[in-house]
Design a protein that fits this description.
Layout: H1 2-26, H2 37-46, E1 52-56, H3 59-72, E2 76-80, H4 88-93, E3 97-100, H5 119-125, E4 129-132, H6 144-153, H7 158-163, H8 167-172, E5 190-193, E6 204-209, E7 212-213
Parallel strand pairs: 1-2, 2-3, 3-4
Antiparallel strand pairs: 5-6, 6-7
Helix pairs in contact: 1-2, 1-3
Organism: bioreactor metagenome
Keywords: Hydrolase
GO molecular function, one term: adenine deaminase activity
């Protein structure tokens, strides 16, 4: 609760600062507020120029993050979302973007008590825009496809799992016009495998960056 209060207070202060700046810009008789570096840093957040990552594990913390984001009209996504499978209907109704993971970790703190590799699949079936992450360097990024395999093994649709590490995160990052899917006009960044990408024995046989073979 204290963390949420601090975040809300900082955003309220920045919103008030922006209001005073706009008022001074519109009326020469008004003095602008004193420069505030902290408020200045939050102005692009309030204008949705910069997206917000809300790191939350527990369902109540996830809901708190959503409430704050709605209050200030933020462009946000939930990182980890460990208990998201318990509130999938809420996440769907709020059109919440979710980065699910890491899956390869232990329950080293109370917030991870409900950790399950089935979470991504449950969220996907509920219609949530879900991406799968490793939280690198917590879990090295080379284990990403292993995390995808775990999600599929625990009920996630295979095609949805591929989207969770391609077009979904590209859309979340606002770069889907260039990457995330194989389409005319996009960057020709391709990886070729000698078998099923989710099979542990499958090997990469070629890598192309901007259409040029690099491996």
């Amino acid at each position: 609760m204290a963390t949420a209060a601090l975040i809300r207070e900082a955003l309220k202060k920045a919103r008030r600062y922006k209001k005073d700046l706009d008022a001074a810009a519109a009326d020469n008789e008004l003095d602008p507020p004193d420069f505030d570096a902290k408020c200045e840093a939050l102005l692009p957040v309030l204008s949705r120029e910069i997206p917000v990552h809300i790191h939350a594990h527990r369902a109540d913390d996830i809901c708190t993050g959503i409430r704050i984001a709605k209050e200030f009209g933020l462009d946000y996504s939930i990182i980890h979302c460990t208990e998201g499978h318990l509130i999938s209907e809420i996440l769907k109704s709020e059109s919440t973007k979710v980065m699910c993971g890491p899956l390869l970790c232990d329950r080293s703190k109370p917030e991870l008590y409900s950790l399950t590799p089935s979470s991504a699949g449950i969220l996907d079936k509920a219609g949530v825009n879900v991406s799968i992450i490793t939280d690198h360097p917590v879990i090295p990024v080379q284990y990403l496809m292993l995390c995808v395999s775990l999600a599929v093994k625990n009920g996630m649709d295979r095609f949805s799992a591929y989207k969770a590490v391609t077009i979904n995160p590209a859309r979340l990052c606002g770069i889907d016009s260039r990457v995330g899917s194989i389409e005319i006009g996009k960057d020709a960044d391709l990886v070729l495998f000698n078998g099923d990408p989710l099979d542990i024995f499958t090997k990469v046989i070629a890598v192309y960056i901007d259409g040029r073979k690099v491996k």
